[in-house]
């Protein structure tokens, strides 16, 4: 189901197209002196609004895809870390190294005394800055902990598993994948956020936005045809609401 906030923006743009059509239907009687209310300017504003709306949708989809990709990339990190600990425990490594590795693994698993945010829960709420910030802290910590674990393994001569996916060279490549997925999510969120800002500027600017211009068009039609006219009933029936998300 399309979110209400998305349909709200689209409804404003669709209603603005209807508003223009009504004004065109009035012929020469619709002749405002203010340039921003004239038909050619209304058409340009509609085209810009539709373009910004489409771009915001495109960037939202890219952001959602990057969010899912990052979640999938991190999905097996916890079981992988547990396998690493088990391999290290039977490698002949000394007890202190194993305990240090287990301590790092607890942080990755989210079972330390101060529990970090879960990697299963940080999907940003509707792409908000607060949501992405909370999410980012969680994933950043996981990357940091996994980096520490790999460094510990690199410095332990006894850790030499035969399993390819547990070898340090493979784990280093895995770490690179985690960092890449994380960076791609950050970039996607930035593009999505900027697209929403640009869309909102076009639709909801207090002086030049589509919603404000629609109000002025209605006022002009009311001044020309009268408050009780069928023409004013036409345009006044079109609803425009300010939405930000």
Features:
mainly alpha; 245 residues
Folded structure, characterized:
This protein has one domain. The protein has helices at 4-25, 39-74, 77-89, 95-109, 129-154, 168-204, 210-225, 230-236. The longest helix is centred in the C-terminal third of the chain and has 37 residues, at 168-204. The protein is rod-shaped. Mean pLDDT is 90; it is low at 112-126. It is mostly helical and 245 residues long. Residues 39-66 form a coiled coil.
Question: In summary, what is this structure?
Answer:
By secondary structure, this protein is mainly alpha-helical. 70% of the residues lie in helices and 0% in strands. The chain has one domain.
Question: Topology of this structure?
Answer:
Blueprint: H1 4-25, H2 39-74, H3 77-89, H4 95-109, H5 129-154, H6 168-204, H7 210-225, H8 230-236
Helix pairs in contact: 1-2, 1-7, 2-6, 3-4, 4-5, 5-6, 7-8
Write down the overall mean pLDDT.
90
Contiguous uncertain segments of 5+ residues:
112-126
> How do the helices and strands follow one another from N- to C-terminus?
HHHHHHHH
The number of domains: 1
Number of helices: 8
Structural class per helix/strand content? mainly alpha
Helix content bin: over 70%
Biggest β-sheet strands, sense, barrel: none
Characterize the overall form: rod-shaped
The number of distinct β-strands equals 0
